[in-house]
Design a protein that fits this description.
- The protein is of the alpha/beta class.
- The protein contains 9 helices and 26 strands.
- The chain has 2 domains: 2-8 and 383-487, Immunoglobulin-like (Sandwich); 17-378, Glycosidases (TIM Barrel).
- Bound molecules: alpha-L-arabinofuranose.
Length: 488
């Protein structure tokens, strides 16, 4: 039997709710169809926003939503997306399928969406093809209560009071689709742009600079040399898990071999090393740790579903996604002293989504259920956990994390092995408890997924395969499972 020790006296860091954040881009059917259908749609909506999708995101207690991209952000001109819809300029979404973007979902609609969900907005500003003035005016339009051409314009467009905006990314993937810049050049532009993004009426912006792609440590080094906490509160990191590691043949979302599964898990776990190394570099230039790390794009990226638009990045979501999302969340929780936000890509119908839609139908994916189960860790204090380290199939045989909040100890355990049940003895130190309750997301078939007709193939179930006595809990983790125990 394997051992896991939990010491609740060792409180290590507070888990920022924003680690469970999401991302919605003008890409494929994420915004249009997935979230926004327009007020005249037969699909039930409130101010054009789908009621079913919005309620599901609300239930998930989505803390923060990033928008409008992604690569799209650096071609987005916000003024085209305000005012009467019939007058809004149309544009070509050059990154994603070359489709017409009619700008019917713009700033007002996004803030309405965040209000309906009850989440914080996180804007990605256009540094790649925009201007300093354009970004500066966007912030003024959104957050200023004073008298100026921008605030007059906002009022004319039906919004009297300014909105609150905290999170502002300045440029997206500026090393790639956001301008193919070198870090020194980007850092100088960043410093210039951020200067003119003002704090109006007590609204305090939390500015985020474009950080590295995956393991590009050179980018982090240069950015950190050039930026100080007075310029930026955080830098971003993007890392996608590609099963094959090869962008031209990533692998199918549903049909994959055991070998491909283990490769996916291995590649997902690589983010732990990446985060650790970036944080080490950041510490050299920011020893007081005033600048945080935001993983504002992460998740599995497979080949698009056959028969769908290749530019729309639509993929199914299986138990494999459930396992890798739990592994990622465990890693973010482990680094929660410095990882202040993470945004899975993307919320609806794109990449590793929590929700899929087809016409008026909607389904929650296995990844949704992991996010749902992990809600217990939000704002909890991470406590020390240590397990026998054992590798199988080239990966650690167990992933775990534990947090304490409001007198409840929440323990998450993932068995990523496909064939082995794992028996675990958990020693709980420093925490008296009288009850344990368990939940599980699992399936004997790693390919299991939900469809529009079979929505509950993979979902959260009650878990009872444990016994507890005097500070000790014995658990039997079935193969390919994610379990959360609530210990009181
Ligand atoms: O999430 C899809 C794309 O991946 C984003 O637009 C871009 O930032 C990243 O390369």
């Amino acid at each position: 039997m394997k051992k896991l020790t939990i010491n609740t006296s060792a409180r290590l860091s507070k888990v920022n709710s924003n680690i469970f954040g999401h991302f919605s881009e003008h890409l494929g059917r994420c915004i249009y169809e997935g979230i926004y259908v327009g007020e005249d749609s037969p699909i039930p909506n409130t101010k054009g926003i789908r009621n079913d999708v919005c309620s599901a995101l609300k239930e998930l207690e989505v803390p923060v939503l990033r928008w409008p991209g992604g690569c799209f952000a650096d071609e987005y001109h916000w003024m085209d997306g305000i005012g009467p819809k019939e007058n809004r300029k149309k544009m070509i979404n050059t990154h994603w399928g070359g489709v017409t973007e009619d700008n019917s979902f713009g700033t007002h609609e996004f803030f309405e969406l965040c209000a309906q969900i009850g989440c914080e907005p996180y804007l990605a500003g256009n540094l790649g093809s925009g201007t300093v003035q354009e970004m500066s005016q966007w912030i003024e339009y959104i957050t200023s209560g004073g008298i100026s051409p921008m605030t007059e314009l906002r009022r004319k467009n039906g919004r009297n009071e300014p909105w609150k905006l905290k999170y502002l990314g300045i440029g997206n993937e500026s090393w790639g689709c956001g301008g193919n810049m070198r870090p020194q050049y980007y850092a100088d532009l960043y410093r210039q742009y951020q200067t003119y993004c003002r704090n109006y009426n007590g609204n305090e912006l939390y500015k985020v600079a474009c950080g590295p792609n995956a393991d590009d440590y050179g980018w982090t080094e240069e950015i950190m040399k050039a930026l100080k906490p007075c310029h930026t509160r955080a830098i971003s990191l993007h890392y996608y898990t590609i099963p094959s590691g090869d962008w031209s043949h990533k692998g199918d979302a549903v049909e994959f071999t055991e070998e491909e599964y283990y490769k996916t898990v291995k590649n997902a776990l690589y983010i732990d090393k990446i985060i650790s190394r970036h944080l080490e570099i950041m510490s050299v230039y920011d020893p007081a740790h005033e600048i945080g790390l935001i993983v504002d794009e992460w998740g599995n990226w497979f080949d698009v579903e056959k028969g769908t638009n290749p530019g729309f990045l639509y993929q199914q979501n299986t138990m494999r996604d459930a396992v890798t999302s739990a592994l990622n969340l465990d890693i973010f929780i482990k680094h929660s002293d410095r990882v202040v936000m993470a945004n899975i890509a993307q919320a609806v119908n794109v990449l590793q989504s929590v929700i899929l839609t087809e016409g008026d139908k909607m389904v929650k994916t296995p990844t949704y259920h992991i996010f749902d189960m992990y809600r217990c860790h939000k704002e909890g204090e991470r406590v020390f956990t240590c397990a026998d380290s054992e590798e199988r199939e080239g990966i650690p045989a167990l992933s775990h994390c534990a947090t304490v909040k409001d007198g409840v100890l929440s323990v998450s355990l993932t068995n990523p092995l496909l064939k082995e049940t794992q028996e675990l003895e958990i020693d709980v130190c420093g925490f008296d408890f009288t009850s344990v309750e368990g939940k599980i997301v699992s399936d004997s078939d790693i390919h299991a997924h939900n469809t529009f007709t079979e929505k509950e193939n993979v979902t959260i179930k009650k878990f009872g395969d444990y016994s507890a006595e005097k500070g000790r809990i014995k658990v039997k983790l079935p193969p390919c499972s994610v379990v959360t125990l609530s210990v009181k």
